[in-house]
Write a structure and sequence with these properties.
The complex is a heterodimer of chains A (537) and B (742). Chain A has 537 residues and is an alpha+beta fold. Chain A has three domains: 75 residues; 84 residues; 247 residues, MetI-like fold, CATH 1.10.3720. Helices cover 60% and strands 12% of the residues of chain A. Chain A has 15 helices and twelve strands. A four-stranded antiparallel beta sheet of chain B has the order 1-28-27-26, with no helix packed on it. Chain B has a four-stranded antiparallel beta sheet with strand order 2-3-4-5, with no helix packed on it. In chain B, strands 6-7-8-9 form a four-stranded antiparallel beta sheet, with no helix packed on it. Chain B is built from 15 helices and 30 strands. The chains are: A alpha+beta (537), B alpha+beta (742). The interface between A and B is large, with 99 and 105 residues.
């Protein structure tokens, strides 16, 4: 017999195909890595204070900006750079592409400032003068003087915030009274009824207090706003800005590395603790983070017990047979139903069905303004609970199934009832598995957006679902959500280019949360798998 | 032991048994319940309409032969009749009492009425004995009595809109007369004279540039194009369009929008068999013309662009037919519903869906009938002098199986088409709710995503389960599982804001890398053949191949991205997108199927991968050992032994991945462009069912047609994924039974 040629043998036994399947795996992993890297690179760099450059162009004009992108120019003659030039109120655009050949010189003057403002985005330029409200005329000042005046304004604003909180409280009380009165009117209580009259009187007092307070507030705001500073942009155009509108001032070109790190940390803190500004494209994410957490929490309250009970029934109580097979198929089907179908179910059943019935039964006086008959935290949580129940069921079932039969038999032999065995032996043993299911369900809920869009998520919620006003937890309120935040600022924002950094930051945060949760869950599960493998002979 | 305690724990056990059983079963019922609810919401779309007789009273205005017109308010509480002596009586349907009586006046003193013609919102044109006309409008308005428990009263009111003077008696009596007064007071009158000529009179008050009132008046004989036997006429509500039908089956159409300059637009032989046209009416919106003939057929027509660029009146829809000639046609004021009268009663048809809605045939011939302005009430005067009111329940006339899934010829379109267009700015706009382009979009996106994901996931799973080092396997699998947890909103936003611009910029590089990467892989395998002779290198072959391939892939991608623009310059004149458009006629949308394939593929890969990997690694090791012992190579073992045994599991994984891709919402919402087009091209976007629901449901009025159609599309999604998942699950359970564990 002739020995086959060696090359043919290598090809014939399919060794290259092993390599190709290896290539498929590396492509998969590479794409996952690319996703992470793109989000990291774009998300992490957002808050780093890069130097402010002053460009002198060949046509004589001057530009101050931070470089954001480099690309080949449109006519292919060289490179072009994208600069963030800010000053939206002066130029209308935040970004500008400048061809390399148009640039005459570049410099990074140390005195250049970045102003973070509560409106119109950032301002890049130089400090000209300061005009405090008790000064006769404006004076040229140093940056430190500006900083200290800003400090003062900040403390004044803090006092104003206390006033605002008071104002909110009064208006909330007054609104409650209005609803009570509305209810009495709906019940056709005599307008001269003493109880009603007392309410009216109470409301009048509150309304009076409200108007007094708001007058005081208006005066104080006017007072604070009278302190202004004047800044100049690259071409010397002056802009007067009220100190109250300035969130922060810094000079990136003078910052040392340690200062930059500190600045970066403070921006991160602002991200998780502050309210959003400028139609969500700046400021913090606090309401969205809070809404996401609340949503996951309320959802777990429903889906955890539901899922565990269903799984215990399936594994411990139901008799194996056709029914259980069908039920398993049903549960796995639940897991495979598109989330948007859950959403439309939630809208039709929870919001328009149950919610509307609640309104008719308990809040008829407020109709046609819906209370529960519109999307809200409760309905979104219930919808998500339905969506995540199969995850908990499958995980719990798996965990219960992995417990060796000897454990049950041992417990029965000692005289325990089925329920006792369940509570004292099986559930504790299965707890890591159940926990895994719960964490996976939470991760799914954190990332799911489509069903929320139609059951109560909004781009900007006026109030958090949890606050100091009775009954503290407001399940009927609309809420904000990190995932929807990404969709909203990335796709519904009027200024997509300016919103991009915020989208990447939000995406990074969401990815980190979800990946952290699911890696913990997967680790737990893998550990548990090892724990019980001794039982199988 | 304490017997009380024993009792207690036994009781607890029983209680728990029941609680858990009931709770478990209840949760499981949820699946069924979800389906039942969404089906229940969408089902009314297909419920056949019905009519309920609400009142029947004796005609209050003399014998039926003398009644010329009838009408009713929207609440079906007050009816009215006009008789030949100009008496108008309002009657309550609740107690059949006469509420009011009005004597209508002709412009030239007392005389009898010949005929009454009704158009628009209860406008009545009264034809007097001497040929003069008056136009009266009836208005109803509900009033709520605050002192009396908000009791509703229907108030009525008559408004005199205008009049047309009597013609010269020498002209003789006209055979037919039609008249309109539009919202600006423009008057139009058309008479079919006794000698068969058609006379048009127009009168318009307009303001000229100086702000002065200017009166333009005209009277002309219309050009009949040698047609002699005109029998029926109809004018649009604003009096700008005139249609006439002849006993020889000819249709004529004049445009009367310029005063004194009537223009014959169309003249055609509508029916080849020269059947007589017996009735004409415009359909709501005044674009389509409904034609009834003596064979009992009702057809609708509108102008369509013809081959030589002009526009001709074309027959579009054939509606249900009567046993005998059509004697009357009228239309609803809310939608494209048509009512036709024949000897066998009234038939309601919806024009666009060609759906027969319902027929009404009361005892005794129908002498006269009218629809309420809201279109949900019908009043009929029978030959027996009875006035009968019906409440019509036609909730979704525009929806039928045909409009949802087949091509439909919409008003104003040049040909039948699949269209999804749920809303527009005008009132008489007709929503176009075809689900076909959406289903097509869903399947198209899924197809391209699966094309990308299935090979990658299955081969990746084969490698991980069979060739990779066990330690690496323990890291790869969790990594891929974590990849499955990446929120789709993030994948979608990256696809739309990062990947789409990137691919648009470097389309040439993308195609180049599609060729270069396999070539480079093959080349590197060839080189490897030589290199593997060195012992230290050969170790890579034992489970590290996928790492060794990484530099090849990255290197090739980098080469492709640098060469891409050059290739575009050389082969495609610098711009591949432009070249595609010029040479192949495909438009390049920035958000297209390439993006969807990558993004949705990315979302689906981990799902298929995990299930396939499970199936592959659960094939009993004895099979593998036997195969290897018989001398098969490791690839031969995988391909011939392990893959066939695991194929049901791989199939299940693919099915579940498919279900996931069909229902995926956020990625397609952000990265498809959401245009409902039907085009298989990979360079176009689409609008899938799921994204469509997310986009439209917040604005859909509850219980309206759109709302229910969206629920129907959710049912379709549900059923699609249900079938696929059940299939996968059955296969998986079988596999589990076969290998004992899974």
């Amino acid at each position: 017999m002739k020995k086959p040629h060696k090359t043919n043998r290598y090809w014939g036994v399919g060794e290259p195909l092993v390599w190709l399947s290896g290539a498929a795996l590396s492509l998969t992993l590479l794409s996952a890595l690319t996703l992470l890297i793109v989000i990291m690179v774009n998300g992490l760099g957002v808050f780093w204070p890069s130097p402010l450059q002053q460009l002198k162009l060949k046509d004589g004009s001057q530009v101050i900006g931070m470089q954001t992108q480099v690309d080949e120019s449109a006519d292919g003659t060289g490179m072009r750079h994208q600069y963030k030039i800010a000053n939206r109120d002066l130029y209308g655009l935040d970004f500008r592409w400048i061809d390399e050949i148009d640039v005459e010189s570049r410099s990074t003057p140390p005195e250049l400032l970045v102003l973070e403002r509560s409106e119109y985005g950032d301002f890049y330029g130089r400090l000209q003068s300061l005009q405090l409200r008790d000064w006769q005329e404006s004076r040229a000042v140093t940056l430190t003087e500006l900083q200290s005046s800003l400090q003062q304004v900040v403390s004044e604003k803090a006092a104003l915030n206390e006033l605002n909180a008071k104002l909110m409280g009064v208006s909330h009380q007054s609104e409650n009274l209005r609803l009570k009165l509305q209810k009495l009117d709906y019940q056709k209580v005599d307008p001269q009824d003493s109880q009603r009259l007392a309410l009216v009187a109470q409301k009048d007092v509150l309304d009076h207090e409200f108007s007094n307070l708001s007058k005081v507030q208006g005066e104080r705001v006017g007072k604070i706003r009278r302190s202004t500073a004047t800044f100049a942009d690259a071409s010397g155009q002056e802009k007067e800005i009220s100190l109250a509108d300035i969130v922060q001032v810094y000079t990136p070109n003078q910052m040392t590395l340690s200062k930059k790190i500190l600045f970066y940390a403070s921006k991160l803190w602002e991200l998780v603790s502050a309210e959003p500004r400028e139609s969500n494209t700046e400021g913090g994410l606090f309401p969205a983070i809070f809404g996401t957490v609340m949503l996951i929490f309320v959802m777990s309250l429903f889906s955890f017990p539901m899922g565990v009970i269903a799984a215990v029934y399936l594994r411990e109580y139901a008799k194996e047979g056709l029914l259980v097979r069908i039920v398993r198929i049903a549960v796995n089907n639940l897991a495979g139903i598109p989330s948007i179908v859950y959403g439309i179910f939630g809208l039709g059943f929870f919001v328009y069905g149950i919610g509307h019935s609640i309104d008719v039964l308990f809040f008829p006086e407020r109709l046609p303004t819906p209370t529960f008959g519109t999307g809200g935290l409760l309905w979104a949580s219930l919808t998500l609970a339905l969506l995540t129940v199969p995850v908990v069921i499958v995980a719990t079932e798996e965990a219960l199934g992995a417990i060796p039969r000897e454990m049950r038999e041992g417990s029965y032999a000692l005289g325990a009832t089925k329920f006792q065995t369940l509570c004292r032996v099986l559930l504790p043993m299965a707890s890591p598995g159940i926990l895994t299911g719960l964490i996976l369900a939470m991760a799914r809920a954190a990332g799911e957006v489509a069903p929320l869009m139609i059951t109560g998520v909004v781009k900007l919620a006026p109030a958090l679902p949890l606050d100091g006003n009775f009954p503290f937890l407001h399940l009927d309120r609309k809420f904000m959500h990190l995932g929807f935040h990404i969709y909203d600022i990335g796709f519904q924002s009027p200024n997509v280019e300016a919103a991009k950094p915020m989208v990447f930051v939000t995406a990074l945060l969401l990815v980190l949360i979800v990946l952290l949760m699911s890696s913990i869950a997967i680790r737990l599960r893998n550990k548990m798998k090892k724990r019980y493998t001794f039982g199988t002979f | 032991m304490n017997s009380d305690y024993l009792k207690k724990i036994k009781r607890n056990d029983r209680l728990a048994h029941w609680a858990i059983t009931i709770g478990g079963l209840a949760i499981i019922l949820c699946v069924v319940f979800i389906l039942v609810l969404i089906v229940e919401v969408s089902l009314p779309l297909f419920i056949s309409p019905d009519a309920q007789q609400t009142a029947s009273i004796a005609s209050p205005n003399g014998p039926e032969s003398k009644v010329l017109a009838i009408g009713m308010d929207e609440y079906l509480e007050t009816g009215y009749t006009i008789n030949t002596s100009g008496e108008m009586r309002f009657v309550s349907f609740k107690d059949s009492g006469v509420l009011d009586q009005v004597s209508l006046q002709s412009p030239t003193g007392p005389q009898s009425l010949l005929a009454v013609e009704t158009y628009g919102r209860l406008n009545h044109v009264l034809h007097w004995q001497d040929g003069s006309l008056t136009v009266e409008q009836v208005r109803f308005r509900p009033e709520f009595d605050e002192h009396n428990n908000n009791q509703r009263h229907i108030m009525h009111q008559l408004e005199h809109l205008g009049e047309f003077p009597a013609p010269d008696p020498a002209e003789g009596r006209a055979q037919l007369t039609q008249a309109r007064i539009d919202a600006d007071g423009r008057q139009t009158r058309v008479d079919l004279l006794a000698d068969g000529r058609l006379q048009l009179q127009q009168r318009e008050l307009s303001e000229n540039l100086l702000g002065e009132q200017e009166l333009s008046e005209s009277r002309q004989i219309l050009d009949l194009d040698k047609v002699t036997s005109i029998k029926v006429l109809t004018l649009s509500d604003n009096g700008m369009q005139l249609y006439a039908g002849s006993t020889n089956g000819e249709l004529l159409h004049w445009d009367l929008s310029e005063v004194g300059e009537a223009e014959l637009r169309d003249h055609l032989q509508a029916f080849a068999d020269k059947r007589a046209i017996t009735s004409l009416s415009l359909v709501f919106g005044d674009v389509s013309l409904a034609v009834g003939d003596d064979k009992g057929q009702v057809t609708t027509w509108f102008t369509v662009r013809n081959d030589d660029g002009g526009r001709t009146l074309t027959r579009i829809h054939n509606l249900s037919s009567h046993a005998g000639a059509v004697t009357g046609l009228s239309h609803s004021l809310r939608d494209k519903t048509l009512v036709s009268q024949g000897s066998d009663g009234l038939r309601f048809d919806y024009m666009t869906s060609e759906r027969f809605l319902l027929g009404i045939n009361p005892a005794g011939a129908i002498h006269n009938y009218a629809l309420t302005t809201r279109g949900d009430g019908l009043i009929v005067l029978t030959g027996q002098g009875e006035l009968i009111a019906w409440k019509l329940r036609i909730p979704h006339p525009e929806i039928s199986f045909k409009t949802l899934f087949r091509k439909v010829w919409y008003e104003g379109y040049d040909e039948p088409a699949y269209v999804w267009q749920s809303s527009a700015s005008t009132d008489d706009y007709e929503p176009k709710l075809s689900l076909t382009p959406l289903i097509f979009g869903s399947l198209k996106g899924t197809f391209y995503a699966m094309l990308f994901a299935v090979p990658l996931a299955i081969f990746g799973a084969i490698y991980t389960s069979q060739f990779a080092r066990p330690r690496l396997r323990g890291m790869i699998k969790p990594a891929v599982e974590v990849m499955a947890a990446v929120p789709t909103v993030i994948i979608g936003f990256l696809a739309a804001l990062w990947l789409a611009p990137l691919i648009e910029r470097s389309l040439g590089s993308l195609f180049l890398s599609l060729i270069l990467v396999p070539v480079a892989l093959m080349l590197s395998i060839l080189i490897w053949q030589g290199a593997r002779k060195f012992e230290p290198l050969k170790r890579v072959e034992r489970g590290f191949e996928f790492l060794a391939v990484v530099p090849v892939i990255i290197g090739t991608l980098m080469i492709a991205s640098t060469l891409g623009p050059g290739m575009e310059n050389w082969l495609f004149a610098g711009d591949l997108k432009q070249w595609l458009f010029n040479e192949l006629g495909t438009r390049y949308d920035p958000r297209n199927c390439i993006i969807i394939a990558f993004a949705m593929g990315f979302a689906v890969v981990p799902i298929i991968f995990t299930i396939a990997e499970d199936a592959l690694s659960n094939v009993p090791p004895s099979l593998k050992a036997a195969s290897l012992a018989l001398g098969a190579s490791r690839w031969q073992t995988v391909w011939r032994v392990i893959l066939p045994s695991a194929s049901p599991g791989i199939f299940a994984g693919t099915m579940i991945g498919f279900g996931r891709a069909v229902g995926e919402t956020m990625i397609v919402l952000m990265a498809t462009g959401n245009t409902a087009i039907m085009d298989l091209s990979i360079f176009n976007g689409m609008r899938p069912l799921s994204a469509n629901i997310a986009v439209e449901i917040p604005e859909a009025p509850v219980d309206g047609s759109l709302y229910r159609v969206l629920f129907l599309s959710a049912v379709i999604l549900f059923v699609l994924t249900f079938i696929v998942n059940t299939l996968a699950e059955i296969v998986r359970q079988r596999l589990r039974a076969k290998y004992g564990r899974f």
